[in-house]
């Protein structure tokens, strides 16, 4: 089987780390199987869809390392939806309904009050041509529902009809179509719902696998029925758990929670974000992988848990720091230059272990080049003054720190924190940071002398 998958976001907002999970799962699956990944914009909602969001989504995906093999837009495919809808109408599988939203809600409320499930009663099927003409005369326009195959010929005598599939993430699954309302595929304003357009697209684009969040499980039985009604074999489905916050709160574009753009602007590495989005909520250890190739190798849908994928946003910082600590100079040289640092391998090797992000190196570049707001406690002032006289002569090397502190220890009797900390504070303005042995040569003799009283 030729593997073709898709990620189909609505360009109605910026994507967040939760959205990135299905995007990454589909892309990784395609790469692992030697297949094709399609980015398909669900942009038929002309009121809410905006080109700026589509541009943002594509930019965010590429930053994560997802390069689409094809980009499609549903707004370019309206003629295909018209043809498919007419085919279902001609087969008697798409029927008009004239109830208003208020009428439908009142009917559902009555059903709930009687202890019955609020399933649509197919009243639209009973309407005569005369009744429909009367509704049209009132100015009503119909919405169109798909007739589910949950009966033996009499649509008003439904029976249990299980639609089963083997899920890539969850194993054997089944949905009873008799427990569901006939889905609306066309709104009263004539616009198509995503349920319908996505199926038409999936058929025409040869989508072989649909990998998405578990919130779509209940829709799958309906969609399989529509695939079959359109004489198409359904794709293979996989439903992964959803990312939530530590408190179990879902993520949404509306709230802007952990948007990919904001994570990028915060200086996080794309592989830290991708590693967390993919591995959280699986049986595999959540660790930062250095490349998408490594993530492809580790990716395994069968490892996805059925329980919620709760993650701690602070974990992103930890994963990011682990990646930064291992980055070779060649990988960051241009980025360091871009933030005003004259990069050298010695500088990066010295400071990277203290950086959560690459941009944190700016703080240590300031320490190296100055000026520095050195701090001296009153009880250390005399000690720091003496220190100036014991700074080793000649070039400052990695041996200089040890020689300097040894001489001061012999002279003053100080040791441990009382020996090292006053020097660190006056030279760097910090209580912590890179090893002074390696940092001292970068600061240089003149800066050292300028910072000592």
TrEMBL record:
It is an enzyme of class 6 (ligase). It catalyses: tRNA(Glu) + L-glutamate + ATP = L-glutamyl-tRNA(Glu) + AMP + diphosphate. Belongs to the class-I aminoacyl-tRNA synthetase family. Glutamate--tRNA ligase type 1 subfamily. It is found in: Cytoplasm. Residues 387-452 form the Aminoacyl-tRNA synthetase class I anticodon-binding domain. Catalyzes the attachment of glutamate to tRNA(Glu) in a two-step reaction: glutamate is first activated by ATP to form Glu-AMP and then transferred to the acceptor end of tRNA(Glu). Its main location: cytoplasm. CDD domains: GluRS_core. Coiled coil: none annotated. Its EC number is 6.1.1.17. A motif ('HIGH' region) lies at residues 9-19. Keywords: Aminoacyl-tRNA synthetase, ATP-binding, Cytoplasm, Ligase, Nucleotide-binding, Protein biosynthesis. Signal peptide: none annotated. GO terms for molecular function: glutamate-tRNA ligase activity. A motif ('KMSKS' region) lies at residues 250-254. Pfam families: Anticodon_2 (PF19269), tRNA-synt_1c (PF00749). Gene3D superfamilies: 1.10.10.350, HUPs. NCBIfam families: gltX_bact. Residues 3-317 form the Glutamyl/glutaminyl-tRNA synthetase class Ib catalytic domain. This is Glutamate--tRNA ligase. ATP binds at residue 253.
